[in-house]
Design brief:
Blueprint (H helix, E strand, L loop, with lengths): L1 H15 L3 H19 L15 H9 L8 H10 L7 H9 L8 H11 L6 H9 L8 H11 L4 H13 L8 H10 L3
Helix pairs in contact: 1-2, 2-9, 3-4, 3-5, 5-6, 9-10
Length: 187
């Protein structure tokens, strides 16, 4: 049933593919579908779920020790990490931002909330690899990108990478262009 729905979606997308981006994202999924048809039945296609406590570990490692040493603080950190798929997103955002923008519990709570629903850091890494550093050095800019990355599966990000690799670089070097590519790929 899943393959039938995917085939129908891909077929309908082919009919409406009017731009080069749409055509490239269609090509990516068509090739992916053909690869799935050749895969062995029963092969596990799921990605492993990361350790649910890794978000809290990342936050406590980055904060000064006195901010994550009481039961109330630890409970607060674990609560703020709900909805996070491990600690990859939080760790990547902390690395991207200047340290003064991620050195309090309130700032970490904002980061963890923005990372909720973002699978790993692949989508964020995709944006970071295409945008100049000055377009991704403030909390607002980072949070805007994370908003686009919410619920973006690995396949959507792989499709976006494939599409941008096939396009001339000037068609994948602004935030709006990257968002359009992600949307074309199904996000």
């Amino acid at each position: 049933m899943k393959w039938l729905i995917l085939s129908l979606v891909l077929s309908s997308q082919a009919l409406f593919a009017s731009s080069e981006i749409d055509q490239l994202s269609f090509l990516y999924y068509k090739n992916k579908l053909n690869g799935f048809e050749k895969s062995i039945e029963g092969e596990d296609q799921c990605y492993p779920r990361p350790d649910s406590s890794s978000c809290a570990k990342v936050i406590c490692e980055k904060l000064p020790s006195y901010m994550c040493d009481s039961p109330d603080e630890i409970r607060q950190v674990t609560t703020m990490c709900r909805g996070n798929y491990g600690g990859d997103c939080v760790a990547r955002v902390i690395k991207q931002l200047p340290s003064y923008q991620s050195d309090s519990l309130d700032e970490m709570k904002d980061i963890a909330n923005q990372c909720s629903g973002v699978v790993g850091s692949r989508c964020f890494d995709f944006f970071a690899s295409k945008l100049p550093a000055y377009q991704l050095d403030s909390r607002d800019e980072v949070f805007e990108v994370l908003g686009q990355c919410k619920n973006a599966s690995y396949d959507v990000v792989d499709c976006a990478v494939f599409t941008c690799d096939k396009l001339p670089s000037y068609q994948c070097d602004s935030r709006d262009e990257l968002i359009n590519v992600l949307k074309s790929c199904g996000n």
